[in-house]
Amino acid sequence: MFRMHNDILNYENPILVLPCYLQVSEAARLAYGVTKAELDDFLMYEFKVKRCAKAYPHQWMTCPYAHRGEKARRRDPRRFPNHGIPCPEFRQTGACRRGQKCEFAHGVFEFWLHPMRYRTRMCISGPACRRKICFFAHTVDELRPEGLGGGVPAGVGKLAEGTSAGGPEERGEEFAEPDLRWVYDLVD
Fold first, then answer.
1. What's the average model confidence in pLDDT over 155-169?
2. Is 46 within 8 Å of 4 (Cβ atoms)?
3. Mind listing the pLDDT tens digit for each residue in 107-134?
4. How many other C-beta atoms can be found within 10 angstroms of the C-beta atom of residue 61?
5. Is the pLDDT of residue 97 over 90?
6. Are 4 and 42 in contact (CB under 8 A)?
7. CA dist., res. 119 & res. 143, Å (int)
8. Could you give the CA distance from residue 91 to residue 158 in angstroms, rounded to a whole number?
9. φ, ψ for residue 23 (rounded to 5)?
10. Can you give the residue ranges of the C3H1-type domain (predicted)?
């Protein structure tokens, strides 16, 4: 498994803060010899999943790794497979009694960074996007086929709390235009 260079997404590396770590510039990506597939893998499987190893105070909001109490923290989709469908209980209450064992996505980050969804739709701003966090493709080259690297397994059938497969939750309509204002309040 590829491990991202320690500094490729490090907030201390000024070239990669343009405009944010989820939109690493093509020049920066090439300078580090990281392929698009490797970068995508990092964002889908390690971004806000892998615990931050820094033992000193730093800007955790711009750090790509997970920190205690952070709402953007995600479960590793390889260790805790979920269907990439929003958890109805988590959406309503902000918590889920099934916790790590839940088969549905908890929150915006877990939903849009799921291998089945990440960069499967074009960003409405395209290359002019200046969002600090954006889960969408900004050029046709960044666009990934929907369902690549995962997908909703056949026979999911009736989902938790009356949500049925094929409904608005599965298609992402619940998170179609994510409100990311809460990202700046990532600690409870």
1. 36
2. yes
3. 889 999 999 999 999 999 998 888 777 8
4. 16
5. yes
6. yes
7. 6
8. 18
9. -120, 55
10. 81-109
**122: β partners:** 137
Give the model's pLDDT for residue 134. 82
Assess contact for 149 and 116: CB atoms under 8 A: yes
Q: Is the pLDDT of residue 160 over 80?
A: no
Q: Ramachandran region of residue 5, left (φ > 0), alpha (ψ -120 to 50) or beta?
A: beta
Q: Which two tokens stand for residue 135?
A: 């889960």
Cα separation, 74 vs 108, in Å, equals 10
Alpha-carbon gap, residue 104 to 131, rounded angstroms? 26
Return the closest-CA partner of residue 85 out of 184, 26, 152, 11: 152
Tokens of 48: 């806000």
